[in-house]
Specification:
heterodimer; A: 293 residues; alpha+beta; Immunoglobulin-like; 2 domains; globular; B: 801 residues; 6-stranded mixed beta sheet; Circularly permuted type 2 ATP-grasp protein (chain B)
Chain lengths: 293, 801
C-alpha cells in the first residue's frame, strides 16, 4: 500500500522564546521488509540557525534544530510518500509464556532491538502490582506468548474508554489505568506495563494510521493525529510483533511507523527546551491518504 | 612515709592510651595485630600525650575556628529542610605508613585502569556482555547506562580522569574496595580543608613530621585539566548543580583553589556543536568541564527531560568532540553495586591478573544459582538494590541486614529475593577496622573507611597521598555517613624520610602555563548586580526605619503628620513599620544572601560571613526590638554592620568586571532611593520636618550644614541630594558612577557608536543635569526615577542574558 502523508505540528508561545533547541522524530521510518520511505521532506519555520540529522540509539532518524533569535511560533511540516509492505501472515511459533524467560536468557546481545531494553522500568512505564495483576488475570498458563499479547491487548481495549479529553501527554500511566480512559498513548503505556509485568518485553511505536478506512470498514480511532501502539517480543523465533490496543488489531497495512522506543520519552515527536517563560499552545494535523494507482 | 598505689610519674603515652580498648576480632589502626602501637603512629601519639589538656583543647579550637572562618559546611537533609551544618571534623587524623600506602595505590591504579576498560566496552561494542562476563540485564536496566552516549568515544580517548575509591580494612588486616566512585566523586576539596584544619590542631607537630603534602596532587591535576584543551582559547570550568547541592561548598572551594570558573548548566549554551559560556562579553568557548553534576541531569534534550540543571545540546557538543568531560557522561554506570560481583572475573580476563585489592564479596541475585546461595547465607550478608551507587552501609532503601529487613516489609526475605531477583545484590557483611577518635577528651576506637582519589595525568594515574576518612559515630560499622552523625578526618601518609614541600605554585623547572584571563559568566554578573542592589536597598530601609522610630519616640504618630507620612512611604516600600521590624527588610537581606550564595567562588569568605551575620542579627532583633528608641538603636547597629560589609567588599574586591556589576547595582539602587525620597519628602505639600528627614536619611546632615549657611529649604535639599556631583548621596553622582562603570564594560570601546545602554544612561544624566532645584519638581523626579529603573532592564539585556 502506498500513502501520501502530511503532518503539521505548530507551537505558539505566550511570550517570545529567546532561544530554543528541539529534537524531532517526525519522518516515517525506512524498515527493510516492512516499510519503505519513498520520499520525505521536513520543513521548519522560522528557519533554524542549526540543523543536524542523526540516528538515535534505537535507530530512529532524528533531527535537531536550534533557534537563536526570539520567536513566538515554530511550525514543523512533513510531507512524505511511504510504501507499507504487506507482511506474510503471522505463524504463531512463539513459546508458551512460561518458557519465554528461557528464550530471553538465550539472547546474549545488547543490540538496540535486544529484549533486555524493554523488560524493566522506563521513564514513563513503571512496573506496578496493579497492572501486573490485571495482566495475570487475563492469562492462562497454556497460552503462547503471541496469544498472551493479544489477550492482554483485547482486555485493555475492552475495559478502557477512548477519550481524547480525559488525559494529556503528561498524564501518568497509572492514573489513566486506574480511571480506565485515555488516548493511544495511554492505551499503549498501560499495555506495555501489563506485558512487562508478566515477563514479556514490550516497547512503544509512534506512527500514523490511514485516515479513511477502506470501503465498508469503520474509521479507526486516532487517525486524525499521530498514533501509537505496542511492540512486543514473542521469543527468538517470532521476534517483535506490533499490536494496536486502541483499535484491538495487530498493526498492519494501515499502520505507518515513525519510531521505536521503550516508551513515549524515547520517541516524543518534538522534544524542546527553550529559554522562555509562560505557557504555549500546540496544534497538530495529520493526513494519511492511500494512493490508488 | 610509705607511698602507696600508683607511682608518682606515669608515662604520658600510657596514660593517654590507658582507656583505649580495640574491639576484639576487629583490626585497629592504632594498635597492630601484635597489640603494640603501630610505629607510624608513635610520634603523633607521643606529641599528643605530651600536650596538656588545655593545649590540646586550644589546638582543636584552632582547627574548628579555621573551618568556621573558611565557611566550610555541609548540607544536611532533614524531613523539612536542608540546613547548613558545621563541618564535623574528627580531630585525630588517620595515619598510614608509606609502604602500606604504596600497596593501596598500586591496587587502585590497577582498578582505575580496569574500570576505564570496562566503561569503554559498555559504551563501545559490549563484548563483555556478548562474551558472558556481564549479564545483559544488569546493563540494560541500569539507569546510569546512558543509551544516547553509546558509540560516542570521548575526545582524547579516555572516559575516566578523576575517580575515587572507598576502601576499608577487613578482618584480617587486608584492604578491601567497598565502592567505586566514577560519576562525580566529592571529597577531594574537603580532604584539603581537613588537612588545613588538622594542621592547625597539631601545628607544632606537623611541621616536623614526615607527612606527604596534598598540593602537588592538585597542581598536577590542574595542569592536566588545562592540558586537555584543544585550543589556547578554550576554557576550563567546573560544572555544579548549584547552591542547593550538599557539596556545593566544595565545588566553589575547588574552583577558587584551582582558579577555574564555577559554572551552572544555565551558564552554558551550545553553538554549532561548540560548548560556550555566556559571559558579559558574549559567548566564550569551553573546552574542558570537570563536572560535579550527575550525568542524567546534564542535557534535558536527550537525557532526563525534567532536568532544570543541564544544558540543552550538551550531548551534541560531546558528540562533535568540542569538549572533554571529566568524567565522560555515563561513567556513573561503573558505580553500580551489582558490578562488583563481576569485576574480579573481568579483571582476570582482560588483564590476565587478579585484582590486587579485592572488592567486597558481592553476589548478583539475577542468576538462579547465586540467588539460592544468597538465600542460604542471608544471615551473614547485607542485601540491597543492585543499581544503587552508594555503599551498602548507607542503607538507602529497603535492605536486609543479617537476614532481617531494615524497614517493615510484608514478606519473607527469601520471597523478597525471589521476587526482586536481578534488582538485588548481596554483599558479605564486613566489619571495618577502627581508628582512634576523641570522645569527651579520651580516645575511643571508631569504625573507619577511606576515600582515596586518583587523577589521570600525562604520566598516568596519580594517587592523592592522603584522602578523606569517614569515622563512625558509634562502635558499630553501619553509620559512617555524615548524614547519620559520622565525622570526617584527615589522612596522613607518613614516610620514614623527609617529604618534599609542595605548593600550588609552579616550580621553576615545570613548563610555564599562562593563567587564563578571567571572564565573568553572565549569571555571576547578574548575582553581583543584584547583591549590590539588595544590600543598598536594605541600607535605605534601615535608615528610614531609624528615622521613623526616632520620631516615634518623640511624638505618637497621631500627633505627627510626618510620622504618618513616613509610615505610608515605608509601607509602599513593602516595609510597614507598624508590626515591629518589617518582613520586607528580612526578605531583602535574605535575597542578598541568596545572591551571594550563588557566587561563593567569587566572593570573599569574610564578606559572605558579614552578610550572614547581618541576616542573623535582623532575625534576632525581630524577636526583641521594641518600637521607639529601642528599635532606633537596633537600626544603628544594623547600619554599622551593613557599612562593615560594604567596606569589606569595596575596599578589598579586585577592581575587575565583577566589582563593576556589584557597584552598578549599588549606584542604581541608591539613585532610585534618592529620587523617591526627594519626590516624597521634598514635595512642597510634604509635612513639616520632611526636608530634615530627607537630609538625615541621605546621611548628608553635616554636608548640608557646611555647604549652606541656612536651615534646610527645598532648594538646598534638592541641590544637595539630586544635583551635587561631589555628594555620594546625590542622584547625579550615582548616575555618573554608573556611566563610568559602563564605559569600561564590554561593548563600550572608545571611538565607537554609543551602545543602547550608554545612550540610556547619558539621557538620564542629561535630563537631570539640565535641571535646577526650582525646575526639579516631584513629578520630574518621579519621571527620572522611572528612567533610572529602566536602566536595570538595559543592563540585563546587554550583559546578563
Amino acid at each position: 500500500m502506498l500513502y501520501n502523508i502530511t503532518l503539521t505540528i505548530g507551537y505558539a508561545y505566550d511570550y517570545p522564546a529567546a532561544q530554543s533547541r528541539h529534537v524531532v522524530r517526525l519522518m516515517p521510518a525506512d524498515i527493510a521488509g516492512e516499510q519503505r520511505l519513498v520520499a520525505g521532506t521536513l520543513s521548519v519555520t522560522p528557519k533554524p540557525a542549526e540543523w543536524l540529522n542523526w540516528t538515535d540509539y534505537f535507530g530512529n532518524a532524528t533531527v535537531e534544530v536550534a533557534f537563536r533569535e526570539p520567536h513566538e511560533e515554530i511550525d514543523f511540516e512533513v510531507k512524505s510518500r511511504v510504501e507499507r509492505l504487506e507482511g506474510a501472515p503471522l505463524l504463531d511459533m512463539s513459546p508458551r509464556i512460561g518458557d519465554l524467560a528461557a528464550d530471553i536468557a538465550a539472547h546474549r546481545m545488547l543490540d538496540p532491538r535486544s529484549p533486555y531494553h524493554f523488560a524493566g522500568n522506563t521513564r514513563r512505564v513503571t512496573l506496578d502490582a496493579r497492572t501486573t495483576r490485571y495482566a495475570r488475570d487475563t492469562l492462562r498458563e497454556s497460552m503462547s506468548t503471541l496469544d498472551a499479547v493479544k489477550a492482554i491487548g483485547e482486555a485493555i481495549h475492552g475495559d478502557m474508554r477512548y477519550d481524547p479529553e480525559a488525559t494529556t501527554v503528561e498524564t501518568p500511566m497509572l492514573e489513566a489505568f486506574e480511571k480506565r480512559h485515555g488516548v493511544c498513548q495511554d492505551f499503549t503505556h498501560i499495555m506495555i506495563a501489563c506485558l512487562r509485568g508478566v515477563g514479556i518485553p514490550a516497547g512503544y511505536v509512534s506512527g500514523f494510521l490511514r485516515t479513511n478506512p477502506p470501503a465498508g470498514e469503520p474509521r479507526l480511532e486516532g487517525a486524525d493525529a499521530m498514533h501509537a501502539w505496542v511492540s512486543a517480543w514473542c521469543g527468538g523465533e517470532v521476534g517483535w510483533v506490533e499490536y494496536d490496543p486502541t483499535n484491538r488489531v495487530l498493526a498492519g497495512a494501515d499502520h505507518v511507523v515513525i519510531a521505536h522506543g521503550r516508551d513515549y520519552s524515547d520517541v516524543a515527536p518534538v522534544r524542546g527546551v527553550m529559554r522562555s517563560h509562560g505557557d504555549h499552545t500546540s496544534k497538530q494535523a495529520v493526513d494519511v491518504v492511500p494512493i490508488t494507482a | 612515709m610509705a607511698m602507696q598505689g600508683r607511682p608518682a610519674i606515669v608515662d604520658p603515652v600510657a596514660r593517654l592510651l590507658a582507656g583505649y580498648r580495640p574491639i576484639s576480632g576487629v583490626p585497629d589502626e592504632l594498635f597492630g595485630a601484635d597489640g603494640e602501637v603501630r610505629p607510624v603512629w608513635s610520634t603523633l601519639i607521643e606529641a599528643i600525650a605530651n600536650m596538656s589538656p588545655e593545649e590540646l583543647a586550644a589546638g582543636q579550637a584552632r582547627g574548628d575556628q579555621y573551618l568556621r572562618d573558611a565557611g566550610v559546611f555541609y548540607r544536611q537533609y532533614g524531613p523539612q529542610d536542608a540546613a547548613e551544618r558545621d563541618w564535623p571534623l574528627s580531630h585525630l587524623p588517620v595515619l598510614i605508613a608509606e609502604d602500606e600506602w604504596h600497596e593501596i595505590a598500586d591496587g587502585l591504579i590497577q582498578r582505575a585502569d580496569l574500570l576505564e576498560r570496562v566503561v569503554a566496552d559498555l559504551y563501545g561494542d559490549n563484548s563483555l556482555v556478548a562474551d558472558g562476563y556481564l549479564p545483559p540485564a544488569l546493563v540494560a536496566d541500569n539507569p546510569e547506562w546512558l543509551r544516547p552516549l553509546v558509540g560516542v568515544t570521548p575526545r582524547g580517548g579516555h572516559f575516566l580522569h578523576f575517580v575515587a575509591f572507598d576502601i576499608g580494612r577487613g578482618p584480617h588486616g587486608e584492604w578491601w574496595v567497598l565502592g567505586d566512585r566514577t560519576q562525580a566523586p566529592s571529597g577531594a576539596g574537603f580532604a584539603l580543608e581537613n588537612r588545613i584544619a588538622t594542621s592547625r590542631v597539631y601545628a607544632d607537630h606537623l611541621s616536623q613530621s614526615k607527612v606527604h603534602r596534598l598540593a602537588g596532587f592538585f597542581r598536577t591535576f590542574r595542569d592536566a585539566l588545562i592540558g586537555m584543551r584543544e585550543h589556547e582559547d578554550g576554557r576550563v570550568g567546573i560544572l555544579t548543580p548549584g547552591p542547593m547541592n550538599d557539596t556545593y561548598f566544595e565545588h566553589a572551594y575547588i574552583a577558587r583553589y584551582l582558579g577555574f570558573m564555577l559554572l551552572e548548566g544555565d551558564d552554558l549554551t551550545v553553538r554549532d556543536g561548540q560548548l560556550m559560556v555566556r559571559t558579559v562579553d558574549g559567548l566564550s568557548p569551553v573546552s574542558v568541564l570537570w563536572r560535579r553534576l550527575d550525568s542524567a541531569w546534564a542535557d534535558p534534550l536527550e537525557l532526563d527531560e525534567t532536568s532544570a540543571l543541564g544544558t540543552p545540546g550538551m550531548l551534541g557538543a560531546i558528540r562533535s568532540g568540542s569538549v572533554t568531560m571529566v568524567n565522560a557522561l555515563g561513567s556513573g554506570v561503573l558505580e553500580t553495586r551489582g558490578l562488583l560481583a563481576f569485576l574480579p572475573r573481568i579483571c582476570a580476563e582482560v588483564t590476565g591478573a587478579p585484582l590486587k585489592l579485592p572488592n567486597i564479596a558481592t553476589w548478583w541475585c539475577g542468576q538462579a544459582s547465586e540467588r539460592a546461595y544468597v538465600k542460604a547465607n542471608a544471615q551473614r550478608m547485607t542485601i540491597g538494590s543492585a543499581y544503587a551507587t552508594r555503599h551498602l552501609f548507607d542503607l538507602d532503601e529497603v535492605s536486609a541486614v543479617a537476614g532481617a529487613f531494615t524497614r517493615p516489609l510484608d514478606m519473607t526475605v527469601e520471597d523478597w529475593i525471589e521476587a526482586r531477583a536481578g534488582q538485588l545484590v548481596a554483599q558479605e557483611a564486613v566489619t571495618l577496622s577502627t581508628t582512634p577518635a576523641f570522645e569527651e577528651g579520651t580516645l575511643v576506637p571508631r569504625p573507619m573507611s577511606l576515600r582515596v582519589f586518583l587523577a589521570r595525568t600525562r604520566d598516568g594515574w596519580q594517587v592523592m597521598p592522603g584522602g578523606f576518612a569517614r569515622i563512625g559515630r558509634t562502635a558499630g560499622s553501619a553509620k559512617l555517613a555524615m548524614q547519620q552523625g559520622g565525622s570526617a578526618a584527615d589522612v596522613w601518609v607518613v614516610s620514614p624520610h623527609d617529604v618534599p614541600a609542595e605548593t600550588m605554585l609552579a616550580t621553576a623547572s615545570t613548563p610555564y602555563l599562562r593563567q587564563q584571563p578571567g571572564v565573568l559568566p553572565s549569571r555571576a554578573a547578574d548575582n553581583l548586580f543584584w547583591l549590590g542592589r539588595y544590600v543598598e536597598r536594605a541600607e535605605n530601609l534601615v535608615r528610614l526605619l531609624r528615622a521613623y522610630h526616632l520620631r516615634l519616640a518623640e511624638a505618637p504618630k497621631e500627633a505627627s503628620p510626618l510620622v504618618a507620612h513616613l509610615e505610608t512611604y515605608l509601607a509602599e516600600l513593602g516595609a510597614d513599620p507598624i508590626d515591629g521590624l518589617p518582613e520586607g527588610l528580612v526578605d531583602t537581606l535574605a535575597s542578598a544572601s541568596t545572591a551571594a550564595d550563588n557566587i561563593r567562588d567569587r566572593f570573599s569568605v569574610d564578606g559572605w560571613m558579614a552578610l550572614d551575620d547581618l541576616s542573623k542579627t535582623v532575625r534576632k532583633m525581630m524577636r526583641t526590638a521594641r518600637p521607639g528608641d529601642d528599635t532606633a538603636l537596633a537600626m544603628g547597629i544594623l547600619l554599622r554592620k551593613i557599612s562593615g560589609f560594604s567596606g569589606l567588599v569595596h575596599e578589598n574586591m579586585y577592581r575587575f568586571m565583577g566589582w563593576r556589576f556589584l557597584s552598578c547595582g549599588r549606584s542604581l539602587e541608591r539613585a532610585l532611593s534618592l529620587t523617591a525620597l526627594l519626590a516624597t519628602f521634598a514635595d512642597p505639600a510634604a509635612p513639616d520636618g520632611s526636608l530634615d528627614l530627607a537630609v538625615e536619611v541621605a546621611d548628608s546632615h553635616m554636608t548640608h550644614r557646611r555647604r549652606y549657611a541656612v536651615a534646610t529649604n527645598r532648594a538646598t535639599v534638592v541641590d544637595l541630594l539630586a544635583l551635587d556631583p561631589l555628594n555620594p548621596r546625590a542622584v547625579i553622582y550615582q548616575l555618573n558612577e554608573i556611566a563610568e562603570h559602563i564605559s569600561v564594560l564590554p561593548g563600550s570601546e572608545l571611538h565607537r557608536q554609543l551602545s543602547p545602554l550608554q545612550r540610556a544612561v547619558l539621557q538620564a544624566r542629561t535630563d537631570l543635569a539640565v535641571e535646577t532645584p526650582e525646575t526639579l519638581t516631584s513629578a520630574t523626579l518621579t519621571r527620572l526615577g522611572d528612567e533610572i529603573a529602566s536602566l536595570s532592564g538595559h543592563i540585563a539585556s546587554t550583559y546578563l542574558r
